[in-house]
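FW: tagging you since you asked about this chain on Friday. Here's the raw sequence from the shared folder, copied in full. Didn't touch anything.
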Amino acid sequence: MTIRLPAPGGGLRAYEPRTEPLALVPAGPPASRTVFSAAHVVADPYADTTPDGPAAVDWDATLAFRRHLWSHGLGVAEAMDTAQRGMGLDWTGAAELIRRSAAEARAVGGRIACGAGTDQLAHGTLPEIRAAYEEQLAVVEEAGAQAILMASRALAATATGPDDYLDAYGHLLRQAGEPVILHWLGPMFDPALDGYWGSTDLDAATETFLDVIAAHPDKVDGVKVSLLDARRETDLRRRLPEGVRCYTGDDFHYPELIEGDDRGFSHALLGIFDPLGPLAAEAVRLLDTGDAAGFRRLLDPTVELSRHLFRPPTRYYKTGVVLLAWLAGHQDHFTMVGGLQSARSLPHLARAYELADGLGLFPDPALAESRMRSLLAVHGVPR
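HL: got it, structure written out here
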């Protein structure tokens, strides 16, 4: 049976969904790479909320999705931008998410790292920004999770140059109880972060970033780089101090960066591994056996879907991620915190469905088809 999807240029076209999913079973963590999935939050669809009000989260469904990721051997990167941090989820909601997810990780033996930033501030002085970071770092560490020091909109707005970044991050790294992950999020993900590390010149910014790490290598477990520039990430990776990992955040080039070359490789901390979790974990386990060709056979075909979800404006990729979670049966609705389900067009969502279905990502293809039909019907597409 075919389903009619929006066609390029207007109108509708026929698509025949697949009938069998890709067979993937839960297994332990990959051994050759550390792999985190940044995870989305599930909104409470029955809450009477407004786009600029506090987030209403369905905690049971949100934690169940994290258990799904852990069951396939992935780590969870919590309270990051994939969880709509700064796009619907405020610090109060993020703090509760961190505490709940960290407790769940302890209960099931899952790996977790959580974002610490400054989003309780709209703006502030440098001392206020340091204090905001300290507050969030304390919440993460008290929850028993590894900290990810997220890029700060407030610091980007207040800093006058590289020295302010060196001072702020040096202060935080000296206080951190355990090695942290430093996060460099490019302006394609958040325009307010343009010029991070004190310069819009990425070469100059990279030098400041490396200076921060070089001053405190014992306090930096790794760096997450989300610039969508494979060459720049590879060059940076080769300059990291020994023992400091590079976690790719490049949702366009992740297969080649994770595979690496004779001079090293990237680990992974990726938003696209929210919908790709089981497949990605299976692919990386092939690398454990030395089967790089098998790894690429599994993962290379997913890049088209990832590039589609993360197409500009890239920060709205979360809409496609949540759509796929709904179609896959991980939640019962397509409602997002802040009403962000409306951030992508119907043709965009339909193409996401088609690409994911073609990859066999839906455990129950018939359920995914039925739900996609219901979404199309809401938009006036006749059944």
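FW: The beta strands are 3-6, 12-15, 35-38, 75-78, 112-116, 146-149, 180-185, 220-226, 245-248, 267-270.
HL: agreed, and The chain has a mean pLDDT of 97.
FW: great, closing this out.
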